[in-house]
Design goal:
260 residues; alpha/beta; Rossmann fold; 45% helix; globular
Length: 260
């Protein structure tokens, strides 16, 4: 079955307006720094799974002199990422390509670090993707991700309503389930960190911003109907963040060193 693109132009424009040019997940360059902390990325080869429009990959390349390969399922996002790399004169350091769901098109042990921000959130077969991430990592290399997650309770009506407002595919699990999946995929030294408090406060500030000082800009860029949709989308997200049902977290693991 072919992939159906979900990130339409209005959605991407809105995410960049809130989270910064090139970013489709919160935190901007600061989130990239958190993902790479302790992975010794300088001069290394990094795979960015679910690279979106390329902001994090370009930041990794600029900040760490790394060679970054970004992959995504959606051609329009990859086109924008490649255009950004060209615009910033980084086409030799950052490359972006569309992939199909399934095995990654890379040789075994071909990357030093694998990064993802949100890809596992939207992936049904997490075990397969993590297995592939482990396969393409060099021994001793790190897999590190930032994901949106859920509590261990049954999904509430509020959560289902927010999913409808998002109009995106979500396959959320708990932070504890993520950690076990990393271990089952063969990673060692697995560490999980709950970031829910951080984004709970940030989501509230974002909501106040988009219904306040950013609203006129949203209408200008998106039209009034789309602007109203995103105001309601963020309101619904704040509800599930503040209830503790929608959570955020980091998970990291290392492929065992050869002979370990």
């Amino acid at each position: 079955m072919s992939h159906e693109n979900e990130y339409h132009d209005n959605m991407v424009t809105m995410l960049e307006l809130i989270w910064g040019e090139g970013y489709m997940a919160p935190g901007g360059a600061g989130n990239v720094a958190k993902l790479l902390d302790g992975t010794k990325p300088r001069g290394k080869r990094i795979l960015d799974i679910g690279c979106g429009i390329g902001g994090p990959a370009l930041e990794m390349a600029r900040g760490h002199d790394a060679e970054v390969v970004g992959i995504d399922l959606e051609q329009p996002l990859i086109d924008r990422a490649n255009a950004a790399a060209h615009r910033f004169g980084m086409t030799g350091q950052c490359t972006f390509q569309v992939v199909e769901a399934g095995p990654l098109p890379f040789e075994d042990e071909s990357f030093d670090v694998v990064v993802s921000s949100g890809a596992l959130t939207q992936t049904d077969d997490k075990a397969a993707l993590l297995g592939e991430a482990c396969r393409v990592l060099k021994p001793g290399g790190h897999m590190t991700c930032y994901e949106w997650m859920k509590s261990d309770a049954e999904l509430s009506d509020d959560m289902r309503y927010w999913f409808r407002m998002e109009e995106l595919t979500y396959e959320m699990e708990t932070l504890e389930q993520f950690g076990r999946r990393f271990e089952n995929a063969g990673f060692v030294d697995v560490v999980t960190t709950d970031a829910s408090d951080w984004y709970r406060e940030k989501a509230r500030r974002e909501y106040e911003l988009i219904k306040g000082s950013l609203y006129d800009k949203m209408v200008e860029l998106l039209g009034s109907d789309a602007a109203e949709h995103f105001v309601e989308d963020w309101r619904a997200m704040v509800v599930v963040c503040e209830s503790g049902e929608m959570r955020q977290g980091y998970c990291r693991g290392r492929r065992p060193a050869r002979g370990a």
